[in-house]
Specification:
Layout lengths: L1 H8 L5 H10 L1 E5 L4 E3 L7 E7 L1 E7 L5 E8 L5 H7 L8 E4 L3 E7 H10 L1 H27 L2 H16 L3 E2 L3 H8 L3 H13 L3 E4 L2 E4 L1
Antiparallel strand pairs: 1-7, 2-6, 3-7, 4-5, 4-6, 8-10, 9-10
Helix pairs in contact: 1-2, 7-8
The chain binds a DNA duplex (13 and 13 nucleotides) through helix 8.
Length: 208
DNA sequence: ACATTAATTGTGT
DNA sequence: ACACAATTAATGT
């Protein structure tokens, strides 16, 4: 665990802090498609991503969900940190997109480190900014882009995160993540296929 | 190997 | 949005 920490964070954190993280943090390895936390659950800590990717969702009272953004290696979910500071119930859902490794840090420790380590404060601040930028990006896309463009963004982002050209997903699932309906997604995908941007197969989309 | 069923995708209104 | 057809995968016999 120390080794992995140094690899990713050696340049950012002091030696001492790295050892503290290793001491109080718990390493978790999860398979693909594993729900790390659901809406309404008690927040126990903040994740530091070591490898893999995690999808962060928001869901409204009707059970409609929407993909907000991905967490990737070196990321942390600092938005949730600030969101959950007071109300300790999760407002988001986190599901792994890939098999992932991460370190959970108890909320308690974070407050202590904020006082003690400038590098930790910087990290929080920087991470917060990155997360916020991503959020604004998806917000812009929601507000100003048509669904077709949004779908294309979704596909290219998924391709980037997975590092593969073949995306294994059903139209129904895409519809859920973009908060649309299956039929609409099917039609748009067909359109994209005809324009040569993708190829459709069962349970799979090939990016070109 | 075959039949049955469920899941996924395509299309017209 | 809804209904239905067509295609493919999964399962049991």
């Amino acid at each position: 665990m120390i080794l992995e920490l140094k690899q990713l964070f050696g340049a950012i954190f002091e030696e001492e802090l790295i050892h503290e993280i290793a001491k109080v943090g718990t390493l978790r390895e999860v398979p693909e498609d594993y729900m790390l936390i659901d809406i309404g659950e008690q927040i126990k800590g903040i994740p530091l991503m070591i490898s893999g990717a995690i999808k962060i969702y928001r869901e409204n009272a009707n059970g409609d969900e929407l993909l907000l953004y991905y967490l990737e290696e070196g990321d942390s979910c600092t938005l949730t940190y600030t969101l959950e500071m007071n109300a300790s119930k999760s407002k988001i859902r986190a599901i792994s997109e890939l098999p992932s490794k991460l370190i959970m840090i108890p909320l308690k420790q974070m407050k202590v480190w904020e006082q003690q380590y400038p590098s930790w404060r910087n990290f929080l601040f920087r991470s917060y900014q990155i997360r916020m930028d991503e959020l604004i990006e998806t917000l812009d896309s929601l507000a100003f882009d048509g669904l077709e463009k949004r779908l294309m963004n979704y596909l290219t982002e998924k391709k980037r995160v997975n590092g593969k050209d073949e995306l294994q997903i059903t139209h129904q699932n895409i519809a859920l993540e973009l908060h649309s309906s299956r039929v609409v997604i099917s039609r748009l995908l067909k359109k994209l296929e005809l324009s040569g941007k993708i190829q459709l197969r069962r349970n799979e989309i090939l990016m070109v």
